[in-house]
Amino acid sequence: MTARTTPDVGTAAVPLALVRRGDLVESVHHGHVVVLAPDGSVRLALGDPEVVIWPRSSLKPVQAVAMLRHGLDVDGERLALVCASHNAEPGHLDVVRDLLATAGLTEDDLQNTPDWPLHAEAAFAWRTEGHAGSSLTQNCSGKHAGMLATCRAAGWDTATYRDPAHPLQRAVVQAVTDLTGDVPAHTTVDGCGAPLLSTTLTGLARAFGRVAAAAAGADDGPEARVGRAMAAHPWHVGGTGRDVTAVMGAVPGLVAKDGADGVYAAGLPDGGAVALKVADGGGRPRAVVLAAALAVAGVDPAPLRDVAATPVLGHGRPVGAVGATFGPAAGGTGGGAA
Q1: Per-residue confidence at 337, pLDDT binned at 50, 70, 90?
Q2: What global pTM score does this model have?
C-alpha cells in the first residue's frame, strides 16, 4: 500500500484527445491514462499513472463494497442504484424509494445536495409536476440511500452518516485502502455532500479490476456482488443516453463508472482495468479516451464505435470529431474506438 502526494493533475498531463473541425485540430484535451493487464502490471501509461486525483463518483462501487461489508443486503437493481450517478428517470426514483422504504426510511432522511434530474426529459417532467430540485432527484441519491440503509442495518446513527468520523465513513476508508492499494492521502467533500477520498489513478484502476474479476468468478463476496449488479443492470448505473450505460451494454462483464471532472474507470472480467483523468475536467473526450484505453486492454473496438462517437457539428451536421491520440484509431476523425 502507498500514500503519496504529487503535483496537480496538469503538471505531467499529455494530449489524450484531439478535437478536429474540418482539416484543423481545433482543441486538445490533456490528461492521464493507465491500462492494467490482468496481473496488475502496467500495459499502458500516458501522463502520470500515479497522479493523485479525486475519483469523484467513480469511487461509488468501492463505497458500495464498504456498505455490503457492514450489513447492507441488496443486489440486482437496488445495488446498481447504490453505485449509480443516475438520471433520476422514474425507474431510478422507484428503486431509490424502495431502498429507503425497505430500511424503514423516507426521502426526508436523505442528506445529499438537492438538484434536478440529469436527464432533460425527466427534469422537464419533474418541473411540470410542480416539484423543486430535491435530494431524491439528485444523481447520488442511490448512494445516500444505501449509506442510510447500511447505518440502519449496522445500528449506526443515521443523522450523522456524512461525518468523516462516522463508522460508515471509516469503513469506506478501509475499503478504498483495501481495493486500491492506496492509503487515502486527502479527504474533502464531494458535490453530493458525502466525504470524498483521494486515490492514485493506478489505484482506481486496480480497484475496478478486482471488482470485475470477482464478479466473473465463483465468489459471492461484496466485490463480486457489486460487479455483477452493475454489469447486469447498466441502465440503473446511468440511464437513457448515458455512455456508462452504453459501454457496459456493449462489453459483457465490463464494470465501468463515470465520475465528474473528467474521471472514468472500468474493469474487465479477466482483471484488466483502465482509469483516466481529463486534466481540464471536461466530459467531452471521456468516452473517446475510455474506448481507446479499453481497446489497448484487449476489448474488440467494434462494439465501442457507437459509444465513443463524438462528432463535432457545423450547422447541425458532423464536420469533424473527437479522436484519441492513442489506440487502434489514434488521431482518427470518425469517433470510433479511439
Answers
A1: very low
A2: 0.95
